[in-house]
Amino acid sequence: MNDKTTDFEKFRRATNYLTAAQIFLQDNFLLKRPLTHDDIKSRLLGHWGSGPGVNLIYSHLNNLIKKYGQEMMFVLGPGHAFPALQANLFIEGTLSEFYPKATQDYDGISYICRNFSWPYGFPSHSNPGTPGVILEGGELGYSLSTSYGAALDNPNMIVACLVGDGEAETGPAAAAWHLNKLVDPKTNGTVLPILHLNGYKISAPTIFGRMSDDELMSLFWGYGYEPRIVSGDDLDRQMEETLDWAHKLIWSIKEAPQDIVSPRMPMIIMRTLKGWTGVKELNGNKIEGNCLSHQVVLTEAKTDPEQLKLLEEWLRSYRFDELFDAENGFGDFVKNIVPERKQRMGMTPHAHGGETVYKPLNLPLLEDFAEDSTIPGTLGSSSMIQSGMYLKEVFKLNEENKNFRFMSPDETYSNKLDAIFKETSRAWVWPIESWDKDMSPNGRVMEMLSEHNLQGLAQGYTLTGRHSIFASYEAFVQVVVSMMDQYAKFLKHSFDFEWRETFPSLNYILTSSGWRQDHNGFSHQNPGFIDDALRRHGDYMDVYFPADANSTLVVLEKILQSTKKINIVVAGKTIEPRWLTPELARKQLQTGIMTWEFASDDNPDVVLAGIGDYPTKEVLAAIDIAKKEWPNIRLRCVNVSSLTSRGFGQGKNFINEAEFDRQFTTDKPVICNFHGYPETLKAILFNYVDNAERFDVRGYIECGSTTTPFDMHVRNKTSRYHLVIAIFDNMARSGRIATEQALEITTRYQQKIEANTEYIKEFGVDMDEIENWQWSK
Questions:
Q1: How many helices (H) and strands (E) does the chain have?
Q2: Which of 24, 150, 273, 277 has its CA 20 to 30 A from that of 431?
Q3: Which helix (H) or strand (E) covers residue 75, if one does?
Q4: What are the φ and ψ backbone dihedral angles of 36, each rounded to 5 degrees?
Q5: In terms of pTM, does the model score above 0.70?
């Protein structure tokens, strides 16, 4: 055994000891006396099983960095292996840079052990309070896509991604292996996937763990990688040689004089025992190398003398007293492996935001893309077509900085955003046929029919300081709602740490909305993503409902300038009326709500609120019809362009109760036409009113099919005719119109609804008066 191998062995003994000590010990951290039940935490939480494998690879990655000066990040897929990651950050000296009490002495060991998995201490999983971390890894499946996102446009970077073999069974992880076909190694960084096969999940074997070496080699060769297996004896020698090989292969491809089609980048398959070096057997059950080593293992060590004895034997097996003493700290084996301070993976500026990695986008003047809206209701604009032209210019203005990407699951053309292809193309490094369109190795549009992996790319790219937009069909972005939740949790807690500096917002465009998925049908009609978003507490989640193309451009300008938020833009792609000039759209966006004076009267009898482009169009049509039916009627049109869980507006700038009352009055009936599920808006209204009876909230009520656009509104009772009926019902109740007269009007519009229904059954389109309606006030 040479000196370097001895250093690795010592480093691993030290980190294994601290991994276990964090889980169990609240005192006697150096085992200066026999272990007692009083030394054991009363609340044993944490995961041991994956820790030793993490400790093996982390020490070798440190050595690789030290040897070659390689810029590197580490992404831990199984976030429950956090005590191992924390042990490494502690020993290398990174943790004390962020937590001054985590000193490399007895007090520091006491600090990390007492506080691990403890209320108001360190959590049990990777988290925003962990230096160098951009993924919590609680919900599994996203480590590889997040790593590829971090590698984009970071050409000198290697992102070492440890994928657990349990995580590898998830759908998102299974698809993420194919991201190598989108990322050009010459202009981007490299992801080095390390598949950690310890063979077991919580209570059963893993699929990958039971595959033979030949099967694994064939699988990952087929995926386009150059795989190598590290397993068996002499793991330190194997791992050092394998990482040297991987580093050499990566740079030989990056520095090759010609572009390489289908470049085979390295990946490592690392086999270690689950719970390696820990308790071998308990109560006749195999522990090491079995699923039973997954978590705490000795759950009764606080009260059971036999388990306490096993724990002491386990901890003493690492001979920690040979590696550390209270006066001098750790031995030379640490400095022989750990790189310089700025090169440590926990110290990477790419994970912490700030001016080192974050650069604001150069944005075009949106007025150059706006269309004339001086006459409200002028027909001829598509929010997505105008957005595509605007984003094309964003790509152009930031070409040199290379800090903007667009993610889409094969829907850029369908969503009418294809103007961006006049400036860039889809990223693709596998073979390209002569008839393929808009594809190149240096493309900046990431298209893959996996919303999970586009979300992961966007998260990795954003958290490392760069800007992106993720555009999707509204119904199918719901696939990643749990990922969005996990990111929201990460974002919320990142505000607790000052060293998590500025990074861009995570931006979504939800288009091809259910209101215009009449052709694809019920499966494509689902506004549920915004429901989840509008339940998030905090000032970092904003949902925008621009009513027309100019308003959409104003929203895009705002979200691309924002930082540390989640922004969701809900806008259609069809040709629709223009309502606001850019100046008015900007004015409205300041508060997220505005009375549209061109469609409003003073002292209204009824207030109508539109939230979303298609529901707003129906509101305007209803006002137009009602005015023709009863010229003396007084109506107010309020448009809401942004919501948070806390109210109307964005972030901390939601309107107060006084402004709410000014817009909606304190006593007049209000009819709300909402883009999403009515219950979502009702919940927000309770921020302002105790009794919402005067609010008639309408929206998508799960009634859809393959039908016409107007019939979608009819089925969900959001059509202009339904709104007219509601207006005159309210007028009759207030005595502003005779009941008989109101009944005559409402009956006529109910008949119009029925007539149109019969018409579309026969002709497949809406009646001309609906198809050809234009604002005429």
A1: 24, 26
A2: 150
A3: strand 71-76
A4: -125, 170
A5: yes
